[in-house]
Amino acid sequence: MSTLPKVAWIGLGIMGSPMSENLVKAGYDVTGYTLERDKLDRLAAAGGTAASSVAEAVRDADVIVTMVPASPQVEAVAYGPDGILENARRGALLIDMSSITPQTSVDLAAAAKDKGVRVLDAPVSGGEAGAIEAVLSIMVGGDQADFDEAKPLFEALGRTIVRCGPHGSGQTVKAANQLIVAVNIQACAEAVVFLEKSGVDLAAALDVLGGGLAGSTVLARKKDNFLNRDFRPGFRIDLHHKDMGIVTDAARTVGAALPVGAVVAQLVTSLRAQGDGGLDHSALLRAVERLSGAQA
Q1: Per-residue pLDDT tens for 258-278?
Q2: DSSP for 5-40?
Q3: Of these residues, 113, 115, 151, 174, which one is catalytic?
Q4: Can you tell me the distance from the alpha carbon of 285 to that of 17, in angstroms, rounded to the nearest whole number?
Q5: Count of alpha carbons within 13 Å of 111, Cβ hemisphere only?
Q6: pTM metric for this prediction
Q7: Is 6 tagged catalytic?
């Protein structure tokens, strides 16, 4: 019998499916629930167990992980008679790995405490590739003791795992992460258009840029997207639009100016309004091409 905690996993999307499968590979007993039948079948094929509801998934779990798109979905699976808090056992640890507002995380932790459920907010960075390869960065908010308990589970999912402070801190750091990523992708996209219009060998240029101070994880991960105009979603524009709303709202609350971030947020909004919300966020290149007179 395994001594590892029993895990309930809620949300088996682009990130949740490979992450839950990595826990199965690490020896965890994982029961999952999501709305799509094919995703449940995928988990079962990987060695996990499919549940027919949130309540069924969490009932016997020691640890409950949620990985859903945004605050409304977290609230939908957490609250109500069929939700996590009403059906989890007392003493269970709820780890929300979604990217949501810091205040939603704070409110969830307070509501869970009344039910005897502990909470960590633990959003991630690294995209689909990082999820598949189990090299995610995981930024965590919550109590130190709960973080220490969850650390072995996190180590099956990621490489950089840091407790950033109390409840909501993980989400605050994730918001900052998404700000940096969006601005970086925008800068890369502008460089790509500039280089191509100048007649430079783009592949060679990106190789040398990647080896210097301009190099970044974003450039390394998205270089092929730019070269091949491959915008199949690893992280959708729709989700980055949501995240830019989180960071601009949170910055306004604390009185932090984000002049460049605000411009990039509007460019993301524009791209989404033109029907590209389902594409990977590297599709910011399409917006720069349109502004530069090219058909994208």
Answers
A1: 999 999 999 999 999 999 999
A2: PPEEEE--STTHHHHHHHHHHTT--EEEE-S-HHHH
A3: 174
A4: 28
A5: 17
A6: 0.91
A7: no
